[in-house]
Amino acid sequence: MKKSLKIIALVLAALTAQQTNAQNKKLKIITTLSYLQYVTQEVGGDKVDAVALANPKQDPHYVTPTPRMNQLATDADLFIENGLSLDMWAKNVVEASGNPSIQPGSPGHLVATINVPVKELPTEVSRSWGDIHPQGNPHIWLDPFNVRIIAGNIAERLKQLDPGNRDYFQKRFDDYKATLDAAMFGEELIKALGKSGGDILTRKAKNNELIDWLKGRKLEAKLGGWMKKAERLNGMKIMSYHKTYIYFADRFNLQIAGELEEKPGIPPPPQHRDAVVEQIKREGIKVILNDNFYSREAADYVASRTGAKVVITYVDVGAVEAVDSYEKLITYLIEEIDQASS
Ligand SMILES: [Zn+2]
């Protein structure tokens, strides 16, 4: 009798340990880009372990899959990509991993930008002339409102994969949304509007009626955050090397006057550089954005002939210490453009 009780006790202890393990087991998540890792970790907290495959200093269009990436993906519970043909290189990683859980179409595979409105949808699909944006412009995360949607997509998938932690993920998502809203509009304004303030302001801003709406309520003095900082950039024309900033520019009311690349993915031919010089002189453009992974030769050539300033920009979280969070990445862009133009 005594012995059998001991056995039962041992079995019970083992079962409890197993259960605790299952509860404590973090979802192992692989993301293509670092901004996705950052957002996933914000929403998933200590219930997930997210790792990004690409180096944030690299051009996200062109990443070479490595055996280490395949290894990371072999036992992942969830694979998250940006999609829109930006991180197509990751298709090889997913295939080579041999991990059935993360293959396209399974719950362990998420295209994070699903249901985010895409700009620059092509009318004619042809990669022969170097269009590396065949599904529209994929640089979608440089508008914080899109990251709000992306964070929601990630939260929904985490709930699906780990339903026992649904409430936890919802709370984390709500908190992250509040962080983004405070960064966008300033804490004071959000506080003045109460619980659904962030949602209301986001809707008004998306419909381009934010300022009028605030004026109507005598709240415009309370506007802070990125929206306030970016007021100084309102209507400013900028040049960029690649079509990286159209979402960012639309959100913060800048105008992209053109690109140094004549076609996305093709280095600028000399006659195009000279045309850009003429355009910058004609339109009084002061700033050229050059992503850190592109040669700055063309930008320097144009700058030296026009007096425009070259700003070296980063597109992914963690490319340098100054942009080690998504929020800092957006702040960096706004402040650098402001500084270069004043
Ligand atoms: Zn691109």
Overview of the molecule:
By secondary structure, the chain is of the alpha/beta class. The protein has three domains: 26-114 and 132-174, Rossmann fold, CATH 3.40.50; 177-227, no CATH class; 233-341, Nitrogenase molybdenum iron protein domain (Rossmann fold, 3-Layer(aba) Sandwich), CATH 3.40.50. It is 48% helix and 11% strand. The chain contains 14 helices and eight strands. It has helices spanning 2-24, 34-44, 67-74, 90-97, 144-161, 166-185, 187-193, 197-206, 210-216, 225-229, 246-251, 270-283, 297-306, 326-341, and strands at residues 27-31, 48-52, 78-81, 109-111, 237-240, 255-259, 287-291, 309-313. A four-stranded parallel β-sheet has the order 2-1-3-4, with helices on one face. Helix 11 (246-251) links the parallel strand 5 and strand 6. Helix 6 crosses helix 8 (197-206). The model has no long low-confidence stretch (mean pLDDT 92). Zinc ion (ZN) binds at residues 61, 132-133, 139, 242-243, 264.
Structure characteristics:
342 residues, alpha/beta, Rossmann fold, 3 domains, four-stranded parallel beta sheet, 14 helices, binds zinc ion
What's the rounded overall pLDDT mean?
92
The fraction of residues assigned to DSSP E strands is 5-15%
The biggest sheet, with number of strands, parallel, antiparallel or mixed sense and barrel status, is: 4 strands, parallel
Count of individual beta strands: 8
Indicate how many domains the architecture comprises. Answer: 3
- Looking at the structure, the CATH topology of the largest domain is Rossmann fold
Question: What's the N-to-C terminus distance?
Answer: 86 Å
Order of helices and strands, N to C? Answer: HEHEHEHEHHHHHHEHEHEHEH
How helical, in percent, are the residues?
A: 40-55%
CATH class of the largest domain: Alpha Beta
Count of helical stretches = 14
Radius of gyration: 23 Å
Strand order of the largest sheet: 2-1-3-4
Q: So, the CATH homologous superfamily of the largest domain?
A: Nitrogenase molybdenum iron protein domain
Ligands present: zinc ion
Q: Pick out the low-confidence regions.
A: none
Which structural class best describes the helix and strand composition? alpha/beta
CATH architecture of the largest domain: 3-Layer(aba) Sandwich
Q: Which word captures the global form?
A: globular
